[in-house]
Amino acid sequence: MVDVATLAVNSVIISALYALVAIGFTLIFGVGGVLNLSHGATITLGAFAAYYASGGIVEAGVGGAVLAAIVVPALFSAAVYKGLIERIQDQPVMVMILTLVVAIAVEQVFLVAEGTQPKSIPSLLDGTVALGGSKFQTNLLVVFALSWVIIAGLFYTINNTETGKAILATSMTTKGAALVGIESDRVNLYTWVVAGGLAGVAGLFLGSFQTANFAMGRGPLMLSFAIVVIGGIGSVKGSLVGAYVIGTAEVVTGAINTRLTGLVPLLLLILVLLVKPEGLFGRELAE
Amino acid sequence: MSADATATRGLVGLLDPRRYGIRHQAGVVGLVLLAVAPYLVPTVWVRNLTIALFFAMFAMSWDVVSGYTGQISFGHAFFFAIGGYSSALLNLELGLPPVVTVPVAVVVTVVAGLLVGVPALRLRGPYFSLVTLVAPTILLNVFILFSDTFGGELGLDSPAPILDFDDLAVTLVANYYLAFALFVGILAVLLAVTRSDAGAVFTAIREDEDAVAASGLNPAKFKVFAFALSAAVGGLAGAVFVHTPVGNPNPSQLLALTVSIEVIIAAILGGMGTIVGAAIAGIFLRLFQLYLGTVEYVVPVVDTAVADVDLLLFSLVTLVLLFALPGGIVRWAVHGGGAALDNIRGRDTATDGGRDPPDRDALAAVRESWREDVAAMQARVPGAEPGPDESAGGDRR
Question: Do A168 and A235 form a contact (C-beta atoms < 8 A)?
Fold first, then answer.
């Protein structure tokens, strides 16, 4: 018999984590029109940065691990944008291929350096907490809380700060934003850095209650597709809702049969693409 | 071999020797070299060449739908896997000989291709690519879900070989010629189709789908035809592949994401929308990759052998090549060479610069149509563009 309360809590927690990944993915697409397929590799990078900072190379404690998991992927993301994507961002096919090749290269680096053996990342907080009759790892609850703090902070930044408004404006219309003096290249760079940081944190969280390995970013990347398509590509609010749809679907089907977990989100993605391609929060085609 | 996307003469024109230009003669020399290759290279390279020929077939199958119609598929491994797995399963479970299972596998692949293609081709640009990117992943998950039948991530046992002899070297050479015959056959069919009137329509769809529709042709019909043809070719190559000693029905050879991506890289490096480019780059890319796997040179500083980091090096080299030659090697050689020859022979240049419209870079055409699609998609996001229906999607996050 499946415990409904455990399922509910698990899906709420994992969904918050997926939202972190998907929001970064959708930000880059919304602002630059770029499908960044190296987003999954950024997650892996975040997890390994945390691993190296928490004993793999240096012993910097949990704080150092969190810092490394944010800074390294953000810098990596900025480097990918500046070095590769900026010059070809109006060529979607090349962008998709190049970001995929970058993803393969990053995976290969970790495969060669660390092998296929999964690495464990220390929990943010140890111990368990009783909630609604079942026990949960404190770590999971911390992940949940931090994810929501970050998401709320992001919403506040986008809606209320100058830079956030510039990001919003560019995603609405690049030309219009340029007319009022917003540099779209700089805004693009901001979104890549933010997305990289978000993915890095997600990698740390994911690694802290599962493990880190070279291919850990693939699953979340595929889920991000499903999430952003369900929510409407480019809509931050949509990807938050989409993350909860997908996260819940994954946890519930996982309880029925673990082999179904990878399948259901992708089938949902295909269904939404065929029935309602603009997604839940996308605008109707004005044709 | 012709790399001429402008030619709409059809098969008869292609067989007319008077039409043979330098590039066609070079193509014939290339084919002859491939035909005698087993007698020129050591046995292990016969094996590698066979793998490369199959990979070139995969790349050509991608080119006919994505290179020509501009519908970029990111999941062509779907076709190779359906072809390979159906043929292997029919052989292993029912004991049917490859002569029967391969044609059945082709039919199965075309049906599966239509099941995915007909609904997916309604979607434009990046959305189509997303669906095709996800399709092989779904198939892999189905294989894992029904591991008892499909062998999960490990794949199936090797099915019965088509050609098998007591001597391993003879078997390898025989299978090389099997692959070579299939390669030439597929090359001929795809060249004939893409140089026909249908091929001209494919190119027109890539350039401007609306214009094709406006001139009274149904773009959907042609796209589905190209997709089905591509599925048939990919399925055929995949099906024969598993019945040779170089191929096995497992996800890493037929279904992995890297398979789909390598196919695209090969076609783009060779020159999208040329078929020949995909074939040439496919052969060389796979040979280069196999060669890297054998290099035992140890890189000093990081202290790892080249063979251990072959995939990493391969991806870095492709990054550089894609960046340097986005138009493709074959197109670059044909045009650069052609222009140079015209100069030497003192031929007149056409007043408009002599550029035939369909010769435009295929990638550039796709880029343009995608830009429109992306803009349309972004416009659909709430609050994306000030318009009369702004209140309808007016939530501002």
Answer: no
